[in-house]
Task: inverse folding
């Protein structure tokens, strides 16, 4: 089956976070605005998932629902097929989201005043969850070498070894782990040697891969039973016990029936990335685009424009009517950057670029 990625979906006044945030910022001018910020896709829904949700809606009772054997099997099979990862069923803990899970982790394993290491620039809720729970952010900035980011160690195993030796719990957010472009591949943290991964929590979700953020479903993998119990106790103390029934059925459909859709989506987004690079090479060569190895989020260096990040943000939003995710929210290292969501029809991508070019 060939899927459709070219149809434009109008999400204004639908409750969409990114479109509503733009509307609040731009007011009446937002009617002509383009929100390419928050990391969800503006592609039409996947038919197989729509069908699964509709079938669940016809069930005679909407009662409390837990994960079934079919659910666990779908998750484990996906991880094996896509990542070569043999998952133990008992290690899987469901969660309404990875951000919620960060709070469970902080409550379970830290105390106010403790330091938590993050690698910046990084997703804002990482630092937000730490400060909100009165812990301390310890920044370990990534190294930017010619537009490529790397961790300031030679090997991932070295990080794991340091953490294991010093009894530091590693929380690996791998929500984008399915969205990787050849020849690159993703290494699941938990597939490192077992001696290095007993003290880890790996966070995953079908939400980024299949655009299911509104269904609030994540799978958290915790190999160690004692760590797993502390995590689930913290989740229960925060009032979480089970997902909604639609989240389970959508996840099963995604992992069992939508792999072909994923492959086509990856090619389409990669095509969008190539389109942006060619356009900028011809019309805005002073801008630098970080190589896109994974995710549908492009990271563009605007430092050549010489405006500070606030002036650049103002011009892009008020003059171009383009609402990127401003890089400074990911840490000071991101001030020169804008994050551009590429999970849109190509016509929207081209419109964004034309607008940006007009405010140079």
Result:
């Amino acid at each position: 089956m060939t899927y459709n990625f070219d149809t434009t979906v109008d999400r204004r006044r639908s409750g969409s976070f990114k479109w509503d945030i733009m509307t609040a910022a731009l007011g009446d001018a937002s009617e002509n605005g383009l929100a390419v910020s928050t990391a969800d896709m503006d592609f039409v829904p996947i038919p197989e998932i729509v069908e699964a949700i509709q079938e669940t809606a016809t069930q005679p009772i909407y009662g409390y629902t837990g994960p079934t054997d079919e659910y666990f099997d779908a998750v484990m099979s996906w991880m094996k097929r896509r990542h070569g990862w043999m998952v133990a069923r008992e290690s899987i803990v469901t969660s309404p989201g990875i951000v919620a899970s960060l709070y469970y982790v902080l409550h379970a394993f830290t105390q106010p005043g403790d330091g938590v290491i993050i690698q910046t620039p990084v997703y804002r809720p990482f630092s937000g969850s730490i400060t909100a729970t009165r812990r301390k952010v310890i920044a370990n900035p990534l190294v930017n070498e010619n537009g490529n980011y790397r961790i300031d160690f030679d090997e991932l195993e070295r990080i794991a070894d340091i953490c294991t030796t010093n009894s530091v719990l590693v929380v690996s957010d791998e929500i984008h782990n399915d969205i990787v472009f050849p020849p690159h591949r993703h290494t699941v943290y938990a597939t490192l040697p077992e001696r290095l991964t007993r003290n880890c929590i790996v966070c995953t979700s079908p939400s980024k891969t299949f655009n299911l953020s509104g269904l609030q479903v994540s799978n958290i993998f915790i190999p160690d039973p004692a760590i797993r119990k502390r995590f689930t106790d913290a989740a229960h103390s925060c009032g979480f016990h089970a997902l909604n029934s639609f989240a389970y059925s959508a996840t099963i459909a995604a992992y069992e029936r939508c792999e072909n859709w994923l492959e086509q989506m990856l090619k389409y987004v990669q095509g969008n990335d190539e389109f942006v690079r060619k356009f900028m090479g011809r019309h805005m060569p002073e801008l630098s685009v970080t190589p896109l190895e994974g995710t549908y989020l492009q990271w563009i260096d605007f430092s050549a424009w010489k405006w500070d990040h606030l002036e650049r943000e103002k011009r892009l939003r008020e003059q171009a009517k383009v609402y990127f995710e401003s890089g400074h929210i990911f840490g000071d290292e991101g001030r020169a950057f804008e994050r551009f969501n590429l999970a849109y029809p190509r016509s929207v991508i081209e419109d964004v670029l034309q607008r940006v070019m007009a405010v140079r």
The longest helix spans residues 259-283. The chain has a mean pLDDT of 94.
